[in-house]
Amino acid sequence: MVVPSLCSLISFTIDFSYFGGxxxxxxxxxxxxxxxxxxxxxxxxxxxxxxxxxxxDPADFLWMMTEEPHRSRRTAIMKxxxxxxxxxxxxxxxxxxxxxxxxxxxxxxxxxxxxxxxxWTFLAMAYIVGGTANHNLFLAIHEITHNxxxxxxxxxxxxxxxxNLPIGLPYAAAFKRYHLEHHKHLGEDGIDTDLPTRxxxxxxxxxxxxxxFATFQIFFYALRPTFVRAQTLTKWHFINVVAQAIxxxxxxxxxxxxxxxxxxxxxxxxxxxxxxxxxxxxxxxVWDGLDQETYSYYGPLNWLAYNVGYHNEHHDxxxxxxxxxxxxRTLAPEFYDNLPSxxxxxxxxxxxxxxxxxxxxxxxxxLAKASQFTGTxxxxxxxxxxxxxxx
Length: 391
Known about the structure:
Keywords: Lipid metabolism, Membrane, Oxidoreductase, Sphingolipid metabolism, Transmembrane, Transmembrane helix
Shape: globular
Helix content: 40-55%
Distance between the termini: 11 Å
Protein name: Sphingolipid delta(4)-desaturase
Largest sheet: 2 strands, parallel
Membrane topology: Multi-pass membrane protein
Order of helices and strands: HEHHHHHHHHHHHHHHHEHH
GO molecular function: sphingolipid delta-4 desaturase activity
Number of strands: 2
Radius of gyration: 22 Å
Strand order of the largest sheet: 1-2
Strand content: under 5%
Number of helices: 18
């Protein structure tokens, strides 16, 4: 039972129905860790230092009954700033960056063909240079998925297959469909494969489990979609697999297996405990008791990551390329400066692992639209609803 004085203190601003009821508040709420997110435009509603809401219930995901926020904010921005359409369109620079990074990775891989894979030189190069470069290619494919490198769709798909080569394993074609669903159906259970499954919630909801998840993120994001939502294969899936197989074969046949191991190590580090990999957790995990599903990061690591840190901006306008996302924020500061953001990607990983208030449960989910029409409701929703009713 919550202390009455505490209830009266925070009931002015907190809608307990959002958090599943007052019973989710722990007794040691006054001993919470420092706030992890920051806000530029501070207000009475959010001073940037206090917690806007109580901790989430670690036993379940945060189930939302509202529409995802980006559609409505996009409409509001276009009404307030109709000139935003001038920022939309493809970015010719992207293909040159991709060419440079692919060339860099292939050259380093060949250079290390005589270096032992478990030597400090090999591992350091794979982590520092290779991890950063392949992470850049992950996000190049993300950018190309939105058809922002060329005017034509086929040219974008071909560039994505090319950018995939140093990653070592084919995934660009499959990623496109899953990622577009992530945008169109943000947070929808069973459709948005970016969301952790209930199995992950049950098995990884502790420090050890979160450490395992953060270390092997790349495998979760690669394998989870195949279990949640299978895809219909297309000719581009076939092209992606064949192109990757030919590239890997020629590389191993000509220079031995070590160059390919360098590329695979680089991909693993890129999605593991790497400074840039903090964006995987930073983007959509719920922090600080906020009713916010997407978070941005405006720090210097954006220079290495196609400005993916401007993630609210990207979800609001997926048709604006990476080079113009800062201009979007400058154009509409009244829409973005009041949104809490992350000051550091590396600290996101550390705080995710060590904080009890954030974990696999800290994701906002909503019913898929088909479930809304058919009346199919997850048991977790029914349980949460019944607990609220009893209060």
